[in-house]
Amino acid sequence: MANFVYLIGDMETKECAVVDPGWDVPAILKAAEGMNLDKIFITHGHPDHTNGVIELVEKKNCKIYIQKSEIEFWKFQWPSVVMLNDGDIISVGKRTVRAIHTPGHTPGSQCLEVDGHLLTGDTLFVNNCGRVDLPGSNPAQMYESLAKLRKLDEKTILLPGHNYASEPTSTIGQEKKSNPFLRFQSSQEFLSFMR
């Protein structure tokens, strides 16, 4: 499914977090060798982004960071869950991660802002946005979430949850120019297109 799994780390403190651990837990653990992997960030609850969570928790005793409305929607029974709200700040060593609630693809979808980078899960892709025809999705909320992301610094580097484009990354500035889903001027226009 061309998923991206990201690591956020502080080489000085050796603290590390993984974002959306899907499919290949041994590869994640290998990439994090030498680091203290103790946090899992979930951008949203779909299985392709979460199917490695239990194995990682069993091997590393990680805490799981997920938006409150997402855990309530999916009713996950994971251990060690930290329920986030929009704007919460979490430390990974000396780095800070800001959780941005971006519902639309799912009720508790979130993006993670860290050091000029934005990990967007399935909210925003290079030249596209997440689906809004799945259980829990909401096109009107997606429009509002994309409008929120449009306001970020244009130099912010976009790191999506899937590799669905010719380039794996972009910037908010580039997406404002080329991504049709960031160019709608009203929710009515967006909703009409999404129908």
* Individual helix count: 7
Instruction: Walk across the major sheet and give the strand order.
Output: 6-7-8-9-12-13
The biggest beta sheet reads: 6 strands, mixed
Q: Assign the CATH class.
A: Alpha Beta
Q: What would the principal axes of the Cα set say about the shape?
A: globular
Q: Which regions contain 5 or more consecutive residues with pLDDT less than 50? A: none
Into how many domains do the coordinates divide? Answer: 1
Secondary-structure element order, N to C: EEHEHHEHEEEEEEEHEEHH
List the helices and strands and how they pair.
Blueprint lengths: L5 E5 L4 E5 L5 H7 L4 E6 L5 H4 L2 H8 L2 E5 H7 L6 E4 L4 E4 L2 E7 L8 E5 L2 E5 L2 E2 L2 E2 L9 H12 L6 E4 L9 E2 H7 L8 H8 L1
Parallel strand pairs: 2-3, 3-4, 4-5, 9-12
Antiparallel strand pairs: 1-2, 6-7, 7-8, 8-9, 10-11, 12-13
Task: Walk me through the structure.
The relative contact order is 0.14. The strands form three sheets. Strands 6-7-8-9-12-13 form a six-stranded mixed sheet. The chain has seven helices and 13 strands.
Give descriptors for this structure.
alpha/beta; 29% strand; 195 residues; Metallo-beta-lactamase, Chain A; six-stranded mixed beta sheet
